[in-house]
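Why do we care about 3D structure at all? Because function follows from shape, and shape follows, mostly, from sequence. That is the central idea of this module. The next example makes it concrete: a single protein chain, its amino acid sequence, and then its structure expressed as tokens.
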Amino acid sequence: MTETAPTAAILIIGNEILSGRTQDTNTQWIADKLTHRGVRLLEVRVIPDNKDIIIKTVKALQGMVTYVFTTGGIGPTHDDITAESIAEASGKKLVLDPVARQMLLDHYGSEQELTEARLKMAQIPEGAKLIKNPVSGAPGFIVENIYVMAGVPRIMQAMLDDVLSVMKAGPAIISNTVSCSLGESVIAKQLEQIQLRYSNVEIGSYPHYRAGTLGLNLVLRSVDVGDLDKATQEVIALIKGLGGEPGAISRQA
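And the structure:
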């Protein structure tokens, strides 16, 4: 797939994810939205609420991808340390942002409701751009190529809508899916040869077991529609040549 497409990594921050207490649903949501914006997701990492690990991981990912998305750790409690960690990672001071404070005031309705814990959510790395939060008021923020969002799915989704409205999109990533009943081991060697011929088409093999029957989905993804369709036709021919029956092709943009 072309290297000109913007790339991204997701950093899921939270002890509750690692313990299994909370299920991560943010990754799938973000990945789907990025694909529709022509942004290739290259990596996902899940790490604890630990400042040293957050700083180390953010710095590592920053130079690898166009965008780094983080979720979690920007709430009002003692273990919400993402904002201070990102500030330190980017060499910025953590300050009480007046615009973020006003967002919280507008949400809660009075100065009396702006408790010390709630004001913590207005502590933002100096100079960061804010990400709107129409659900609970407390904003996320953008520092360099790091997009910091809440961990609560509904809030994260609202923040991501704001982020996507200003993000640079890449060329549309199109995918074709061809199904068959052949085993992966039967098709593996010749499928690899097709992959080698089409370096800008990403080909994935995904077996499944449904209603007592083993099947295989071959998914081809690319921004080059011409090569995508050529590679897809070769996959169909391969399946037929091995005695299989290719299922209907489904295309998704």
